[in-house]
């Protein structure tokens, strides 16, 4: 038990380090570059102060050098903040994407409750059923009509891409119809709340 825990823990630390280590290495790399730039600025401020030591006021020299020292810190903070914002804004983007996602039909629909013991017989009828995966795509099921009697076992045959799996998705309304309807025991499933439909036929 203990060994398993240690092993699991080590694996997870390894996985975590795969992301953390490059991040830390990049951070250090950035720091070196930024400090180098800051150092150069300070160096030139000092150099010019020395070169013009006879003409410039000593107070001004002090101010310019101490200001240039602060540039390093400011640069680092600026870059860190900018890269943090860039990293974290991904979360906002993701939420925005989910907010804009088209919602499924209502989970419960009180105005169309499923009849008490529906489905009793299990008779499934497709009427001129059409289905496409997304607006603008071709129809995948181009108006299929068939009827399966209650208790009957059927096999669906067709080459790959014929639409066998799509039929199942249609039955659970994972994908909504582009036309036509599916009746189960004479109830049009497109009228039901999704929860009523999916819980009764699973
Ligand atoms: N997520 C999807 N987005 C767009 N088109 C899709 C998607 N899934 C399937 N299709 C298209 O729908 C058609 C029917 O696919 P489906 O998966 O129902 O076939 P299938 O008969 O189950 O095939 P297979 O025997 O390979 O399982 C295919 O032409 C496929 O290109
Ligand atoms: Mg399939």
From TrEMBL:
<feature type="domain" description="ABC transporter">
    <location>
        <begin position="141"/>
        <end position="201"/>
    </location>
</feature>
<dbReference type="InterPro" id="IPR050173">
    <property type="entry name" value="ABC_transporter_C-like"/>
</dbReference>
<keyword id="KW-0812">Transmembrane</keyword>
<feature type="transmembrane region" description="Helical">
    <location>
        <begin position="34"/>
        <end position="52"/>
    </location>
</feature>
<dbReference type="GO" id="GO:0005524">
    <property type="term" value="F:ATP binding"/>
</dbReference>
<keyword id="KW-0067">ATP-binding</keyword>
<keyword id="KW-0547">Nucleotide-binding</keyword>
<dbReference type="InterPro" id="IPR003439">
    <property type="entry name" value="ABC_transporter-like_ATP-bd"/>
</dbReference>
<dbReference type="GO" id="GO:0042626">
    <property type="term" value="F:ATPase-coupled transmembrane transporter activity"/>
</dbReference>
<dbReference type="InterPro" id="IPR027417">
    <property type="entry name" value="P-loop_NTPase"/>
</dbReference>
<keyword id="KW-1133">Transmembrane helix</keyword>
<keyword id="KW-0472">Membrane</keyword>
<protein>
    <submittedName>
        <fullName>(California timema) hypothetical protein</fullName>
    </submittedName>
</protein>
<dbReference type="Pfam" id="PF00005">
    <property type="entry name" value="ABC_tran"/>
</dbReference>
<dbReference type="GO" id="GO:0016020">
    <property type="term" value="C:membrane"/>
</dbReference>
<keyword id="KW-0677">Repeat</keyword>
<dbReference type="GO" id="GO:0012505">
    <property type="term" value="C:endomembrane system"/>
</dbReference>
<dbReference type="InterPro" id="IPR036640">
    <property type="entry name" value="ABC1_TM_sf"/>
</dbReference>
<dbReference type="GO" id="GO:0016887">
    <property type="term" value="F:ATP hydrolysis activity"/>
</dbReference>
């Amino acid at each position: 038990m203990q060994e398993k825990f240690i092993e699991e823990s080590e694996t997870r630390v390894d996985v975590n380090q795969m992301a953390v280590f490059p991040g830390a290495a990049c951070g250090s790399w950035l720091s070196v570059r930024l400090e180098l730039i800051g150092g150069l600025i300070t160096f030139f401020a000092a150099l010019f102060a020395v070169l013009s030591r006879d003409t410039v006021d000593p107070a001004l020299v002090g101010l310019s050098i101490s200001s240039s020292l602060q540039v390093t810190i400011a640069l680092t903070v600026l870059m860190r903040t900018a890269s943090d914002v860039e990293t974290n804004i991904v979360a906002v983007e993701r939420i925005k994407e989910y907010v804009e996602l088209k919602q499924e039909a209502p989970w419960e629909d009180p105005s169309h409750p499923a009849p008490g013991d529906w489905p009793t017989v299990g008779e499934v009828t497709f009427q001129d059923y059409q289905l496409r995966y997304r607006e603008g795509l071709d129809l995948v099921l181009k108006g299929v009509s068939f009827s399966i009697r209650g208790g009957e076992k059927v096999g669906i045959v067709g080459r790959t891409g014929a639409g066998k799996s799509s039929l199942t998705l249609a039955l659970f309304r994972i994908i909504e119809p582009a036309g036509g309807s599916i009746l189960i025991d004479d109830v049009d499933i497109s009228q039901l709340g999704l929860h009523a439909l999916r819980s009764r036929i699973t």
